[in-house]
Amino acid sequence: MNEAEMAATALWADYVRAKNNLLKAGIIRSYKSTEGDFSEWLVELIFKGQLPDSKSHIGYDVLAGDKKIQVKSITKMFDNPNGYGVTRKDRQNNPERGATHYAFVFFEDLVPDAVYLVPEVFVRTFPKEQIKRPDFEDKYRVDYDLSGYAQAMSK
C-alpha cells in the first residue's frame, strides 16, 4: 500500500466511525445521505415532531402537530450555483395525503446554517425548476440557533 492509499484508508476509517456513531445515536437512520438523514433529525428536533416508523414513508418525513413536513437538505460545493430541483412528485403533492409543509435545511461547507419552512403550495407552484436560497423570504426562515455546529467545527 502506498503512502496516499494509507492516508486515504485512515481518513475513510474516520468517516466510517463517524457515520456509525451517528447511526448508533439515532441521529441518522441509514447509510444513505448523511446530510439528508441529519436534516430530518434536525427538523424533528426543531418542530418537536416525530419521524414515521418507516424510513421510506411516502409524502413526508416529519410529523409535527398538524404539519406533515417533507425535508430537503441542500448541500452543495461552494462553486455549485444549483438549488433544489423541483420534481414531478413535488408538483403532484396532495396535502391531504402528502406534505403540508417543506423544510429546507441549507448547509455551508457541510455545516447546517439555515432552515426554512414553507407551505407545500410554495414548492408545488414554484414558477422555476429550481428553488435557491434567495427565493426564500425572511418570513420563512426558522428562528433556530445553528451556530453551535459551526463553532464545533472551529475546535
- Rounded to the nearest angstrom, the distance between the terminal CA atoms is 32 Å
Query: What's the gyration radius in Å?
Result: 17 Å
Helix count, per DSSP?
5
The biggest sheet, with number of strands, parallel, antiparallel or mixed sense and barrel status, is: 4 strands, mixed
Helix-strand string: HHEEEHEEHEH
Number of strands: 6
Written overview of the protein:
- This protein is an alpha+beta fold.
- The protein is 33% helix and 21% strand.
- The protein is built from five helices and six strands.
- The protein has helices spanning 3-24, 34-46, 88-91, 120-124, 147-153, and strands at 62-64, 67-74, 84-85, 101-108, 111-119, 130-131.
- Strands 1-2-4-5 form a four-stranded mixed β-sheet. Strands 3-6 form a two-stranded antiparallel sheet.
- A hairpin with a 2-residue loop joins β1 (62-64) and β2 (67-74).
- The longest helix is centred in the first third of the chain and has 22 residues, at 3-24.
- It is globular and about 55 Å long.
- The relative contact order is 0.12.
- The mean pLDDT is 93.
List the helices and strands and how they pair.
Layout: H1 3-24, H2 34-46, E1 62-64, E2 67-74, E3 84-85, H3 88-91, E4 101-108, E5 111-119, H4 120-124, E6 130-131, H5 147-153
Features:
155 residues, 6 strands, alpha+beta, two-stranded antiparallel ribbon, globular, four-stranded mixed β-sheet
Brief account:
This protein is an alpha+beta fold and 155 residues long. The protein is 33% helix and 21% strand.
